[in-house]
Amino acid sequence: MAEFQAYNKSAVAHAFGRAAKTYDQHAAFQRDVGAKLMQGLPQDLTGWRVLDLGCGTGYFTYLLAERGAQVVALDLSPDMLKVCRSRCSQYEVEYLVADAEHLPFESSCFDLVFSNLALQWCHDLAPIVHDAVQYLNPNGRFLFSTLLQGSLHELDSAWKVVDSNHRHINNFHSESGIHSAISNLSKVSKAISKASLNVYAHRCWYPSALALMKDLKGIGATHGAGRARGLTKPSVIQQLEMAYQPFSDLNGLLPATYQVALGEVYL
Questions:
Q1: In contact, 206 and 215? CB cutoff 8 Å
Q2: Pick from 44, 126, 239, 242: CA 20 to 30 A from residue 103's CA?
Q3: pTM of the model
Q4: Domains and CATH numbers, the chain
Q5: Predicted confidence (pLDDT) per residue in 157-208, tens digit
């Protein structure tokens, strides 16, 4: 199994910054996953202090604040936070540019740490999970989602037919690695009442491989994949479309399958 390669965080922040204005147009999948995380939360979060870790454009920052929570919106990209600030202008939200792997908080300062599809950009999940729990107040909870190895396997396979010398999808963590990170919570100083991981496949459908890649570019999720000159030529894209066809359904639509992990940790 390939080792997870660390990302250049400045480049990741730049990629998401470029996509800040287009992100919401392409983020239906991200909203669907985040909605599953929100299902277990009370409708009234008045009095809760919440960290939205990797808030992006603030879609869930807004929903959390709407329920009465005092939210700290944190993201690696200043441009994403600008969009978040505009979206949540009617609420008193604190905004912070920071790396999820280097957080500035003290122990026991949040009732909820919420992170939707951001942790896949982090190199080592174990210390992040550990720190998130340490930030929780008594009876607090940590809810997160991330992507696992096997995500976008159709696109990966098609690209390998066209260009086997470069990687064209991003790195993803293994399910076993996330289970290990949760298992290691037995070492934290706080008592865990519940820790679980639910894994499922989410499939999106596209009329073409190019449409899928435009979606990925639209949300800024392109940094980390290999690059080579000439791979956007029409002839190369046509080869990619042909290599993707074995995955098509009866209507000619092409699948993009994500392996999603939903994690819950309760004190």
A1: yes
A2: 44
A3: 0.90
A4: 9-148+171-201+259-266 (3.40.50.150)
A5: 999 999 877 777 888 999 999 999 998 887 777 889 999 999 999 999 999 9
